[in-house]
Write a structure and sequence with these properties.
Blueprint (H helix, E strand, L loop, with lengths): L1 H5 L6 E3 L3 H11 L4 E3 L10 E4 L3 H10 L6 E4 L16 E6 L16 E5 L2 H14 L3 E3 L2 H30 L9 H4 L11 H4 L3 H4 L2 H10 L2 H18 L6
Parallel strand pairs: 1-2, 3-4, 4-5, 6-7
Antiparallel strand pairs: 5-6
């Protein structure tokens, strides 16, 4: 997202609690972008985009000054009320897409869903999103949760199936690449990364709050499947965690 935004706006800073991560991304963008910690955040930016794990959004919002620019997070599961009483102008800037390092994404095709604390903020975020994507729509916090939940089934659980299929094929001297003609689009990332490397989503990150919230929101007939598959992913990447 930072590199897509840099083509249409002035990305002034990449901020991170882990300064080396900020330096790596700033170096990819170039053009004098500063890599700084959160306590060196510029006071005069028009936008502050929080692209972080869901569990970190509230603390980042609380730990940064109430500068007058628009503050927006990129989460599908966190409501914009996370900014209430902390920031004056805020919203969501949510890309319905999965991201992995070193896997290129054509951002112009990524659906962007926008919500604003008021009409002015909404319109400004829509205008910014339309600079980088041809598919921009409005979505309140409940709709984003529904979109994110659907994406978990379509993307994250499918990735788990690829991992298990890869294991089955390897026992017979083949690899998951033999499924590429069948899976075409959904296997795009697997052309340059293994199934394990490509896994993303709340279970991969160990975001128990998101998992439990989504489980509670599901209809009865899907709860068992969601719980089983989420626990399977947790067992692979976070063996000590239980839903």
């Amino acid at each position: 997202m930072a590199m897509a935004l840099d083509k249409v706006a002035n990305v002034a800073q990449i901020c991170s609690r882990h300064i080396e991560n900020a330096r790596v991304l700033a170096g990819k963008i170039g053009g004098g972008v500063s890599a700084v910690r959160l306590d060196r955040l510029a006071a005069d930016a028009d936008y502050y985009i929080i692209a972080a794990n869901d569990d970190a959004i509230a603390s980042i919002a609380a730990d940064t000054p109430p500068y007058p620019g628009i503050w927006a997070h990129t989460s599908g599961s966190v409501p914009i009320s996370v900014f209430d009483g902390i920031k004056e102008r805020y919203g969501s800037f949510y890309p319905l897409q999965t991201f992995s390092r070193n896997v290129a994404v054509d951002f112009s095709r990524v659906p962007m869903f926008i919500e604003g604390s008021d009409a002015s903020v909404r319109d400004e975020l829509v205008a910014l999103a339309r600079r980088i994507s041809s598919r921009v729509d409005l979505a309140d916090s409940d709709r984003r949760k529904a979109f994110h939940l659907a994406a978990v089934f379509a993307c994250n659980f499918a990735n788990l199936m690829w991992l298990d299929a890869d294991g089955l094929l390897r026992r017979n001297g083949l690899t998951v690449n033999y499924l590429m003609p069948l899976l075409e689009v959904t296997l795009q990332k697997l052309a340059s990364a293994s199934p394990e490397e490509a896994m993303t989503g709340p279970a991969r990150r160990g975001d128990l709050a998101v998992l439990r919230g989504q489980l509670a929101a599901l209809p009865t007939e899907l709860k068992e499947t969601y719980s089983l598959l989420s626990q399977r992913i947790l067992d692979i990447f976070h063996p000590s965690l239980k839903i």
